[in-house]
Design goal:
By secondary structure, the protein is mainly beta. Helices cover about 5% and strands about 40% of the residues.
Length: about 180
């Protein structure tokens, strides 16, 4: 496959430094989670369910506070990529993304989006794109409007809440939560 035309973009991406996302995004919290298996957002709030090898937890992505924890052994439904909530999510079945597949929304309603690309395997680059920007804009002579917010060797899940107010990056050992209140 001929991809030489993408060399300028590859060069730009390799030179891009990892940094905090631009406004209106700000880091809300970072949590160590040993043995993280999967995460899933509630469709009606900014609550995030975290499933790990040591139980389940719920984090409010607007405040960055842990609101529930269950240390009991739990196994999510790997076939349907679902998990049962705890605490304020008690009884709800949430779609999850993580070790066994799945995916979080990669676009917010107002056009922000995330791209996960692999230039130098096994590391993947996590790019946050400004509203309605394209990774390929620079190839058309337009200014780049993407920001490298992570470089991970092993990514479990990455994406937005259903409202688009929160954005998370999860690895096997931690979760970083970004939020905004401009919407």
């Amino acid at each position: 496959m001929y991809t030489k035309h993408l060399d300028p973009l590859r060069k730009e991406l390799r030179e891009l430094q990892t940094r905090s996302p631009p406004q209106p995004w700000q880091k809300v919290g970072e949590f160590a989670v040993g043995g993280l298996l999967s995460i899933g957002f509630d469709r009606e709030s900014e609550l995030l369910l975290i499933v790990s090898s040591t139980g389940r937890g719920v984090v409010d992505c607007q405040s960055g506070q842990r609101v529930a924890r269950d240390d009991g052994e739990y196994y999510e439904d790997n076939m349907y990529l679902e998990a049962v909530g705890i605490g304020p999510l008690q009884g709800k079945i949430l779609r999850v993304s993580g070790l066994h597949g799945g995916g979080l929304p990669v676009t917010a309603g107002d056009g922000w989006s995330v791209e996960i690309i692999t230039l130098d395997w096994p590391a993947c680059e996590i790019l946050l794109l400004e509203p309605f920007a394209s990774l390929y804009d620079s190839l058309d002579g337009k200014p780049s409007r993407f920001h490298k917010i992570g470089n991970e060797l092993e990514l479990r899940a990455c994406g937005f809440s259903y409202s688009g107010h929160s954005f998370v990056v999860a690895t096997p050992s931690d979760i970083t939560i970004y939020g905004r209140n401009d919407v």
